[in-house]
Specification:
The protein is of the alpha/beta class and 95 residues long. The radius of gyration is 12 Å and the shape is globular. Strand 2 and strand 3 form a beta hairpin. A six-stranded mixed beta sheet has the order 1-6-2-3-5-4, sandwiched between helices.
Length: 95
């Protein structure tokens, strides 16, 4: 399942995105991965980043004490099916 969520301001900070990700995980279930579509990149923060890294082998960056995983939007067709096969639901927030 993929949901498109569009209620996040494009001026949100990294910490605000991480906090919003946790809020959505609580709302939609712990097995939900929250991805932010930021231009040509898909970015996940916090627990979602850790889950993506574990399921796909992507490296985790640590910025301001927050785990971050980023991949090109053109790789969605590779990573999203892997995550769904692992049992995750995907929510994409477009900014």
């Amino acid at each position: 399942m993929t949901a498109i969520i569009t209620d996040i301001s494009s001026t949100a900070t990294m910490r605000a995105r991480a906090a919003k990700s946790e809020e959505y995980k609580q709302k939609y279930g712990r097995n939900t991965i929250i991805l932010y579509e930021l231009g040509a990149q898909c970015t996940a923060y916090g627990q979602s980043a850790t889950e993506i890294a574990n399921a796909t082998g992507r490296g985790i960056d640590h910025q301001e004490g927050i785990d971050i995983v980023t991949f090109p939007k053109t790789s969605e067709d590779i990573y999203l099916p892997r995550l769904v096969r692992e049992g995750y639901k995907i929510a994409i927030i477009k900014e």
